[in-house]
Structures are given as C-alpha cells and as structure tokens.
Amino acid sequence: MNAGAKGGLGWWRAHWPRIRKIATASFIALVVVLLCMAATRVEWGEVLGAISALPSRTLWVAGLIAAASYAVYSSFDLLGKYYTGHGLAWWRTMMVGFISYAFTMNLGAPVGGVGLRMRLYSRQGLKQGVVMRVMALSLATNWIGYLLLAGALFAAGAVALPDEWELGNGALRLIGAAMALTGVAYLFLCGLSNTRSWTLWGHEIELPSLGLASLQIFIGMLNWALIAAVIYVLMQQKVAYPLVLGTLLISAIAGALAHIPGGLGVIESVFIALLVSPSMPRFQILGAILVYRAVYYLGPLLIAGAWYLAAEAKMERKPKSDKSDIRCTNYPYR
C-alpha cells in the first residue's frame, strides 16, 4: 500500500466517528421530511373515523393479547436466569425484562435492551459478565424465533411482494429457506456440538442445552405470533392472519435496518404497501396501526416508566448489604 492510500485510510479512521454521526443525523432528517410529506397526503378525517369505529371489545382483546406478549418476552430473561444461574428473584427478573422491552420498542435497543438492563441488573447486584450473558440469550431467543417463523412463512410464499419492489417473490422464498435453515442449524449446534464455549471480545459465550434452545425457539416464535395477533384483531379479521404475520415480520427487519426507534413510519409503510385492498383501504390500515402503536408501544411505556422510577427510588433507599444474597452459580442450566 502506497503512502497516499495509507494517508487516506488514516484520514477515514480519524474522521469516521464524526462522518457516521453526520450521516446518521442526515438520514434521520430525511426520514422526518419524508414522513411529514407522507402525513400531508393522509386523509386524517377518514383515519380518525376508522379509529373511532373500532368496537371497545376489539380494543380490550388487543390489550389482553399485548399483555400476554409482554409476559412472554419478559420470560426471555427468565431463561437467562436459568442459563446463568443468578440468584435474582423470578419476579425481579421479569420486571427488568418488561421495562427493558417497553423502552426498546419505543426508544431502541441501545436504551432499553442494553442500557436499562445493565443498570437495573447491576443495581441489584449482578456482575457485568452475567448481565451480558442474560442479554445475549434474550437477543438470541428473539431473533432465532424470528428466523424460524419468518423463514417458514417466506419460504411457503405466505407473503406476496408488490411488483415494484426490487426483491422478487422468488428471492424472498430463497431468503426464507436460508433463514429457516439457520434457525435449525442453531438447534442442531446446541444439541450436537462438542465445542460448548468460545471467547469473543473477552467474554465467554457458551451454548445452551438442547432443551433450553428448544424453549428459546418456542417462546421466541410465540411472541412474534402474539404481536401479529394484536394487529390482526385491530384489523377486525379483514386480512388473513398468516398475511398479517408475514407483513409484520417484513416490517420488523425493515425497521431494524432503518435504525428508526419503534420503526416509526416504516411499519406503516410496509403494511400499507402489502395489505391495501378494496376490503381493507389505506385509511383503515393506518388507523389500525396507529391504535396498535398506542396499545403495544405507548401504553406499556407509561407503565414501564412508572415502574422504573419506583424501582430506582426503592433501590436508592435499599442498603448495599441487602444485595449480598445475589449470587451466580456455575451456570448449571446451559
């Protein structure tokens, strides 16, 4: 490599943090502008009319399903408790899972999935390495379940992409098959691999047992299915459930790639692009998704915020000696 190339590479390394911040800010600004432009084209009177026409029973059922989904996701951290063998009470563990999930859905994984989990667990006596293992297992549970469920649906052709999308339906089926195979490979790895642990960036990563991996897959898939059920109910069963589920799974990965907290605007755009029909017009879809955001995002965030503040206040008053019983065993449930 010549001196000019080395100098150019050094310049990029030195300025990359600032370039990344500028690029991220520019992208977010562009998204905001596009959302504002799209909002001006929405017939809000019809959207509000669709929302007000939703029966109260529908809202109650959607709320109950959302509560079940949050309970399932909170149990991800229970798997982490058994995986690491830490001594925190089960209800405290689920509390951390619930709070972190609600903040993750609204503000992004760095705030909820990482920041709040690390703070709440650490304040209750868990070591950083244990918390990292809990977070890793929770993350794996969510996305392994996603890979298998989405892969099976995409490979089966349950979702038909619009003709104007560059990614065709044939490519989506191939991607789906690869995703499903990845999930199956994880299961086989947990059950058959002779090498059970690796060291990555100074942290030891150990495979869970086959039984624990199977439970991961089950509750991971169940949570995604419950989220889709919330939207299905709010759409008053006018769209087939497999299509709602497949659309949700596509919007989830689109939102993750866009790095927009809560997938704001992305979820709405994907659902409108894939589900608009004479029986389900644009304003009804948008109305259902806005209610879904209130039920699944904003409502739990208010509860989690109050719970978090109460937990912080209680931990501030609690003497450090009360945390001495929080121990970590030799990880017997892997």
Explain how this protein is built.
By secondary structure, this protein is an all-alpha fold. It folds into two domains: 1-41; 51-323, no CATH class. Helix content is 75%, strand content 2%. The chain contains eleven helices and two strands. It has helices spanning 3-40, 44-52, 56-84, 90-107, 110-123, 128-155, 169-192, 210-234, 241-258, 266-275, 282-317, and strands at residues 197-200, 203-206. The protein has a two-stranded antiparallel sheet. Strand 1 and strand 2 (203-206) form a beta hairpin. Helix 9 (241-258) packs antiparallel against helix 10 (266-275) and helix 10 runs antiparallel to helix 11. The chain is globular, with a radius of gyration of 22 Å.
User: How many strands?
Assistant: 2
Termini Cα gap: 47 Å
Largest sheet: 2 strands, antiparallel
Q: Class by helix and strand content?
A: mainly alpha
Helix/strand order, N-terminal first: HHHHHHHEEHHHH
pLDDT below 50 for ≥5 consecutive residues: which ranges? 321-327, 329-334
Q: Would you tell me the overall average pLDDT?
A: 83
How large a portion of the residues is in β-strands, by DSSP E? under 5%
Total helices: the number is: 11
How many separate structural domains? 2
Strand order within the widest sheet? 1-2
Helix content: over 70%
**Shape label:** globular
Q: Measured on Cα atoms, how large is the radius of gyration?
A: 22 Å
